[in-house]
Structures are given as C-alpha cells and as structure tokens.
Amino acid sequence: MVADYQPPTWPSAETPKQIHFEWMVENLEAAVAALQGFGATLAAQQSRDDPELRVMLDPAGHPLCLMSTRSVIPAFRDEAARQGP
C-alpha cells in the first residue's frame, strides 16, 4: 500500500467526477463473480432504479458498473440492442 492512499469515491459536491467504466454483460451474476475472483467488491451504494445493474469497486477502490443486457433502463437496454450479441 501507498502511505496516505485514499481510494476514489463516488462523485459528490466535495469530490469531483472521476472516470469509471460501464460494462454491458449478458450474465450479470457470472460477471460479478468473475470480478470478485480478481479482488473486486460490491460497492455499498447500489442502484435502486435498475435491479440489472451492479456497482463494483476494483481492488484499488475505483468504481465500475456492470449492466445486464436485460436492464430496465431504456438507454442501457437500447445500447445493448444496438451492439447486438
């Protein structure tokens, strides 16, 4: 570990936006398990709007999102349809 290291946080009024990745996956639970196998964890804050979305943190604390192709959020669902199988 690096001395005085502070992991990234979700954007707020005190913390500016930081880049994070959003991955569209066909099998959400398998993708969560795969990332956990590499040391990622589920974030304490999860979406209440979409049961097909998981917010994860990589081992250094960077947030990333996994979205199922069955997302209930139209923009995510439409993007999955555009990208195809």
SSE layout and pairing:
Blueprint: E1 21-25, H1 28-37, E2 41-42, E3 53-57, E4 63-68, H2 74-83
Parallel strand pairs: 1-4
Antiparallel strand pairs: 2-3, 3-4
Helix fraction bin = 10-25%
Report the structural category: alpha+beta
The value of Rg in angstroms is 14 Å
Helix-strand topology string: EHEEEH
Helix tally? 2
Spell out the CATH superfamily.
2,3-Dihydroxybiphenyl 1,2-Dioxygenase, domain 1
The top-level CATH class is Alpha Beta
Number of strands: 4
Instruction: Compute the number of structural domains.
Output: 1
Span between N and C termini? Answer: 40 Å
Calculate the mean pLDDT score and round it. 82
Largest sheet: 4 strands, mixed
Low-confidence stretches: none
Shape summary = globular
CATH structural fold name: 2,3-Dihydroxybiphenyl 1,2-Dioxygenase, domain 1
Label the CATH architecture.
Roll
Order of neighbouring strands in the sheet with most strands: 1-4-3-2
Which percent range describes the beta-strand content?
15-25%
Brief digest:
By secondary structure, the chain is an alpha+beta fold. The protein has 2 helices and 4 strands; from the N terminus they run E-H-E-E-E-H.
Plain-language structure description:
- The protein is built from 2 helices and 4 strands.
- With 85 residues, it is an alpha+beta fold.
- It has one domain: 2,3-Dihydroxybiphenyl 1,2-Dioxygenase, domain 1 (Roll).
- It has a 4-stranded mixed beta sheet with strand order 1-4-3-2, with helices on both faces.
- Strand 3 and strand 4 form a beta hairpin.
- It is globular and about 45 Å long.
